[in-house]
């Protein structure tokens, strides 16, 4: 059996980690990236192997575009030595962090950091990795439901995610000739470290957010990880150039 290989950025914790585990359970081999969490990444690698999967973990800071050519060379080498392949199948641009700042107070440094992490990183990482993505593969970008509804303090973050959704549609067109599907997911509020972990750790915030969700609770990492595994599967191969809202029906 040939196992598809998925490369997930920011896989050491949160949604990326959960996506890796769900994909591994469905037979997808994983190349995960971590920024500083080498030991968390190693724990994830062991958990994947414990469910019969295979994984390699590589260091990557998605804001450091100068490192991307060397990173691509490392991915190429890892594919050959660890997986016996020349190409991988799924790229998930997941790495990212939230930024809360009222528009009036936002600084150019904060803006530059958001651009670097959420837009420039995915753009040029995808570009550099494209030769290593198999024809018929997938690119999945991670947006946010802040694009669909507004919450004061998230103007700049949401603007980055809106750009990622548009980018996904354009890439779907340009990569169609290689049968590479490009989509985005738009998670609602999920219990992770995102935003300082407020949705997970602050009961008041959790209850407030849950009230705005049709299914009556905030999302858990498993709600996103299993959705991503489904979206990347062949069952969803006709979905292209679209954004999937995965929010339990938040602020509909
Ligand atoms: P998290 O803070 O738990 O994890 C973020 C991951 O991204 C970590 O592994 C971190 O190391 C990595 N990362 C951050 N900056 C990086 C950089 N410069 N280079 C490499 N890796 C970097 O948050 P999460 O909830 O897992 O967020 C994952 C993605 O989901 C992000 O793009 C986020 O914007 C998006 N998102 C999250 C939510 C939510 O409510 N949790 C909702 C919508 C969208």
What percent of residues adopt helix (DSSP H or I)?
A: 40-55%
Question: What pattern of helices and strands is seen along the backbone?
Answer: EHEHEHEHEHEHHHE
Instruction: Give the helix/strand class.
Output: alpha/beta
Main sheet attributes: strand count, strand direction, barrel closure: 7 strands, parallel
Structure report:
This protein has a seven-stranded parallel β-sheet with strand order 3-2-1-4-5-6-7, sandwiched between helices. It has 252 residues and is an alpha/beta fold. The chain contains eight helices and seven strands, in the order E-H-E-H-E-H-E-H-E-H-E-H-H-H-E. It has a single domain (5-196, 222-245), classed as 3-Layer(aba) Sandwich (Rossmann fold), CATH 3.40.50. It has helices at residues 14-25, 38-50, 68-83, 108-129, 155-174, 198-201, 203-211, 221-232; strands spanning 5-8, 29-34, 55-59, 88-93, 133-142, 181-187, 243-246. The protein starts with a strand and ends in a 6-residue tail after the last strand. It binds nicotinamide-adenine-dinucleotide. Nicotinamide-adenine-dinucleotide binds at residues 9-10, 12-16, 35, 60-63, 94-97, 117, 142, 144, 187, 189-190, 192-194, 199. Residues 9-10, 12-16, 35, 60-63, 94-97, 117, 142, 144, 187, 189-190, 192-194, 199 line the site of nicotinamide-adenine-dinucleotide.
Task: Throw out a few tags for this protein.
binds nicotinamide-adenine-dinucleotide; alpha/beta; seven-stranded parallel sheet; 252 residues; Rossmann fold
């Amino acid at each position: 059996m040939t196992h598809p290989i998925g490369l997930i950025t920011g896989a050491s914790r949160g949604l990326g980690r959960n996506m890796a585990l769900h994909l591994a359970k469905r037979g997808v081999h994983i190349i995960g990236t971590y920024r500083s969490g080498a030991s968390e990444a190693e724990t994830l690698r062991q958990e994947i192997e414990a469910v019969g999967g295979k994984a390699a973990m590589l260091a990557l800071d998605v804001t450091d575009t100068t490192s991307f050519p060397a990173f691509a060379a490392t991915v190429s080498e890892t594919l050959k030595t660890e997986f016996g392949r020349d190409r991988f199948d799924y790229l998930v641009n997941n790495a990212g962090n939230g930024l809360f700042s009222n528009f009036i107070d936002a600084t150019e440094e904060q803006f530059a950091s958001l651009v670097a992490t959420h837009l420039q990183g995915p753009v040029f990482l995808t570009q550099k990795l494209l030769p290593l993505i198999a024809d018929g593969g997938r690119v999945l970008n991670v947006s946010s439901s802040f694009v669909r509804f507004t919450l004061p303090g998230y103007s700049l973050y949401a603007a980055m995610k809106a750009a990622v959704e548009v980018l996904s549609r354009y890439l779907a067109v340009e990569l169609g000739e290689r049968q590479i599907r490009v989509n985005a997911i738009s998670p609602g509020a999920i219990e992770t470290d995102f935003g300082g972990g407020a949705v997970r750790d602050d009961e008041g915030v959790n209850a407030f957010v849950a009230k705005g969700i049709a299914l009556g609770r905030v999302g858990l990492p498993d709600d996103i990880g299993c959705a991503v595994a489904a979206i990347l599967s062949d069952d969803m191969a006709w979905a292209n150039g679209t954004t999937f809202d995965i929010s339990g029906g938040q602020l509909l």
